[in-house]
Structures are given as structure tokens and as C-alpha cells.
Amino acid sequence: MVREIPTAEAKANFSAVLRMVERGDTIYITRHGRRIAVLQNVPEDTVESRRAAALERMEKRRLQLPRQVPFEEMMSWIREGRK
């Protein structure tokens, strides 16, 4: 179901508005009769696919970083005067 709710009502009843969205309603928030925002349910598969894509991007970036230098190797560099 599609509903329009004024900002003051949405603010006063935010938990109820979120429950409506969870049930599948689309809520348009209005100010002075004009739609300014929309709240709608996000399908779980969308959340999961976004999470998987984000993890994949992070892994690719991690692989592009220079290798980590073990502590012992850094200490030997310091002892040798290498920075």
C-alpha cells in the first residue's frame, strides 16, 4: 500500500511508520503537501548482495596493498639503519 504522511506525523510516529514499511508499504513523507522523501522496504537479497559486493571490493583492495612486513624484519631494518 502507498501512503503519504506529513513530516510532523512521521516524526511523532516513527516506529509505527517503520512497521508499515517492514510490512511492505511505501511511505511518502510530505512537507506542505509536497513529497520530499520516500521510505520503502529493502528486500533481504538486495542487502545480502550489497554486503557480498562490498566484501569483494574490500578483498580486491586488500590484495593491492603492499605486503605486510613482519615485526622482526622491521626491527632488523632499524638495527641496520634502514628506514
Distance between the termini: 65 Å
The portion of residues assigned to helices is 55-70%
Considering the protein shown, what is the CATH homologous superfamily of the largest domain?
YefM-like domain
Strand order of the largest sheet: 1-2-3
The unreliable regions are none
Radius of gyration: 25 Å
Q: What does the average pLDDT come to?
A: 89
Question: Describe it for me?
Answer:
With 83 residues, the chain is α+β, with helices and mostly antiparallel strands. It folds into 2 domains: 2-39, YefM-like fold; 44-80. The protein has 4 helices and 3 strands; from the N terminus they run E-H-H-E-E-H-H. A 3-stranded mixed beta sheet has the order 1-2-3. The termini are far apart. The model has no long low-confidence stretch (mean pLDDT 89).
